[in-house]
Amino acid sequence: MRKLSLDNLNRLSVDDFKDAEKFPYCLILDDIRSLNNVGSVFRTADAFRAQKVYLCGITGQPPHRDITKTALGATESVDWQYVTDVVALVQQLQADGWIVAAIEQADGSTLLSDFQPEPNKPYAFVLGNEVAGVREEIVQLANVVLEIPQFGTKHSLNVAVTTGIVCWDFLQKM
């Protein structure tokens, strides 16, 4: 066994990525203050072929050197859009047939381990501020609230880590 070089990985070019079929989900980042987290989410969205990343509220937007540093080019491959009003975005996605899933600890949440995506339905995963989480109004609007089971003394995960877990879980269950 040997470690593969970048040339051995046969990665898609940016143009090929843009033309490739995407998985039926998007990510909504609402009020993410860390530009490094934003860049990391772009890399995850590229790795797991998200349809789109929506940047809302105070969430930083490319181009910015801190986003670019952690995104490693994913801001060029992943489709993204800045939207000022996250509530209006969620309502529009729902009207268009998307299932909106807030990633939050809440009464009545569904553990991610118990979550079964509906077949042939697109999902929008909402990730909130690093301190305050997903805003209450979005938790109330969401079709489902998903919670990642945790077993240690801390009861929160970094938003970029959370994104990776949610995307991987979703694709495994599709």
UniProtKB/TrEMBL annotation:
Residues 26-168 form the tRNA/rRNA methyltransferase SpoU type domain. GO terms for cellular component: cytosol. One of its GO terms (molecular function) is RNA binding. Keywords: Methyltransferase, Transferase. GO terms for biological process: methylation; RNA processing. InterPro entries: Alpha/beta_knot_MTases (IPR029028), rRNA_MeTrfase_TrmH (IPR004441), SpoU_MeTrfase (IPR001537), tRNA_m1G_MTases_N (IPR029026). This is RNA methyltransferase.
